[in-house]
């Protein structure tokens, strides 16, 4: 599980392990592929959880321009099988740009980004926070699968920008620096 909303029934043994997994996905530059179909991949008596997922690398994204994950109906197991459909367009030109994490440690990186983008990174962080807050409100109003996916994607964008922003100041992003506001559910999901 990468989010407390991926559990219904039973207890969550460790929120720390959820944060650790999310940190690993973020630090590795991996992307959660999302899914279509039933929200849970494990159905066991009165416990439902989304344990099974597909994550992929930038190399995968460059090779396949579309990746769809479907949760199929379970038959003989308490886990729903996953169907992965990846499509590749032959005329797609691979990107020549490669981002190197070490670049953000260079003392002139933030200034170069500001000049290139025409705005400081903090402006993008503020926009991402506003978009994440709006997605959270939408999910609170209507806790649908589509709204959860939108919330997850906004959280990913926000966490990535926060990580970049914190690294500019020489501080490593941690789960503590990304904690939700008091009284709000923890919606950290990369």
UniProtKB/TrEMBL annotation:
InterPro entries given in the database record = Endo/exonu/phosph_ase_sf
Cited Gene3D superfamilies: Endonuclease/exonuclease/phosphatase (3.60.10.10)
Concerning SUPFAM superfamilies, the annotation shows:
DNase I-like
Q: What is this protein called?
A: Uncharacterized protein
Query: Which species is the source of this protein?
Result: Sesamum calycinum
């Amino acid at each position: 599980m990468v989010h407390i909303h991926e559990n219904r029934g039973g207890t969550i043994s460790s929120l720390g392990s959820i944060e650790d997994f999310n940190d690993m996905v973020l630090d590795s530059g991996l992307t959660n592929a999302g899914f279509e179909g039933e929200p849970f991949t494990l159905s066991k008596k009165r416990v439902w959880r989304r344990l099974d997922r597909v994550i992929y690398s930038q190399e995968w994204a460059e090779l396949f321009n579309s990746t769809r994950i479907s949760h199929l109906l379970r038959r003989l197991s308490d886990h729903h099988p996953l169907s992965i459909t990846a499509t590749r367009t032959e005329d797609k030109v691979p990107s020549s740009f490669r981002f190197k994490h070490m670049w953000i440690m260079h003392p002139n990186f933030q200034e170069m980004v500001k000049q290139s983008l025409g705005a400081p990174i903090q402006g993008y962080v503020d926009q991402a926070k506003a978009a994440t807050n709006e997605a959270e409100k939408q999910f609170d109003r209507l806790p649908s699968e589509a709204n959860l996916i939108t919330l997850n994607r906004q959280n990913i964008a926000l966490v990535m920008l926060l990580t970049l922003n914190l690294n500019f100041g020489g501080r490593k992003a941690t789960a503590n620096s990304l904690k939700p506001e008091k009284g709000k559910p923890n919606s950290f999901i990369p």
